Amino acid sequence: MPLFGSLLTACVLLGLTADSVFSQEAPASLGEVAPAVAAPVPLDKADIAWVLVSSALVLMMAAPGLAMFYGGLVRKKNILGIFMQCFTLMGIMSIVWAMWGYSLVFSGDVGGLGLIGDFGYVGLKGVLPYIDANNVQQIPQILTVPKSLHMVFQMMFFIITPGLICGAYAERMKFSSMVVFSILWGTLVYCPVAHWVWSDFGWCSEFNLSPTAKIKAIDFAGGTVVHITSGISALVCAIMIGKRLGFGQEPMPPHNLTYTTIGAALLWVGWFGFNGGSALAADARAVNAMVATHMAAAAGVIAWAGMEWLTRGKASILGACSGAVAGLVCITPACGSVTPISAIIFGLAGGVACFYACTKLKNHFRYDDTLDAFGVHGVGGILGAILTGVFATKAITGPNGLHGVIEGNMKQLGDQFIAIGASMLIAVVGTVLLLKLIDAIIGLRISQAGELQGLDVAEHGEEGYIFL
Amino acid sequence: MKKIEAVIRHFMLEEVKDALTASGMQGMTVSEIRGFGRQKGHRDQYRGAEYTVDFIPKVKIEVVVTDDNYGAAIETILRSAQTGKIGDGKIFVTDLEAVYRIRTGESGADAL
User: Fold this and answer.
1) Where are the domains of chain B?
2) The whole model's pTM is what?
3) For testing the chain A interface, which of B32, B43, B44, B47 should be mutated: the one with the most A CBs within 10 Å?
4) φ, ψ for residue A265 (rounded to 5)?
5) From A358, which residue of chain B is nearest by alpha-carbon distance?
6) Cβ atoms A162, A408 nearer than 8 A
7) Do B48 and A363 touch (CB under 8 A)?
8) Which B residues in the span 31-60 are in contact with A, Cβ-Cβ below 8 Å?
9) What is the CATH number of domain B2-111?
10) What would the pLDDT profile of A377-395 be if each residue is shown by its tens digit?
């Protein structure tokens, strides 16, 4: 916990210092629509097609992607536990997002503070097509796509983010507690941060064109919103829920690295939609995002596998897969503003940093972050958000676009630190409060007997593998 | 009658099976097992968590022979399963009380 405090303080201080010392930059010109009445821009079929495909790709990342990646890493008695968590989140978080999640992020703003959206879009009111007073069909739009598409694309992010946290408490979390936690966490941690960073009214959003909005954090596809929030929350969960029975004494190797590999490959391909689709258009930005994403993944493979080769003489498939994911996490905030060549640096840095976080750091502090949700998403997300402030370039963002240290703009780095600090803060506070609350009412962990038996039988009454 | 249980290396199974059937053995049972004797295991590492794996995958062949064929069967297995390195395995022999053919109900040597 003292580690957190210093990290948070450092982020906020660095950010505020950089901001006050360096001059303001012009807001990003992304062709974004101002909060006022939108000019009638026609729907674009190519944009719609690409974002539709991206939405499917991101859902695929939740299952089978993440499900198999995580599933192969746990012991065989818990395989269905993982699958059930991922699959259930696909069900529950979708409904929550439609009912109030999308509204809390992307509707208006409560009090004009840029902290949280209002209930304007509850139940998807104002999002779905309707017939108006003149008997004309209206299709609410955002930029060149129907709002419904923006909603469903973002829904897939809302699904997978709590899924990432499952990695921290794998093999010991009560299913009912996971469900309650995920719904509340999504509402109280994810939605605010997404509003801050992606709403037109967010206090640190690059899309906020108000003259009083000084902080413009770059987070193209969710480095802070998805990875930092889930990664930090994961660490809190791992510490507060406690270690698995037998952790540190019994061997608990992955029961099926073939699943993990398949999962990692699906995550890699799915990420093209996660990052490429975040352009919300089939345009040059989306292309850059996809290419940068791929280069970072590739470099990540080399970095982690290379570190293993150097430190223990053998490169492993788990290392290669983890490296790819680390690179992908790292490039997520940056892919719409850095070049694919810089992306290689993101991949190498992410691979090396996460390698150390998952080996040295974890072994030193002995927390049971079972599937390295913090080690990969937390560490990778923080690093990626910082590097974004360094490598953002007008070559990708445009002549009036946000740019970073390599083009002489220190303020961007400061803005990144502020956003990082703020998302870490809400993740820690939100998760601590939620876990304490849920523990007091229904508990967090399954019973000892259940944990020894395995989640599959104890929580779901099923067996994953029946051989004879 | 005797029951012969031979714990052998995985990749020797085909050779031992061929040698036994060539010498007249009519059937056998095979199972996948793990075990160790003097052969050491190995070290696995998964993202920084290291384990020593003591148990090594092996194959167990079980055959039942009459007292007359016993010597030849042991000879065949020893010859075909050997590589000369530590980890070749072991043969355990026990006396067998009875054996039955389920289809016909025959017992004894007729059932083999």
Assistant:
1) 2-111
2) 0.90
3) B47
4) -65, -40
5) B47
6) no
7) yes
8) 44-49, 51, 53
9) 3.30.70.120
10) 999 999 999 999 999 999 9
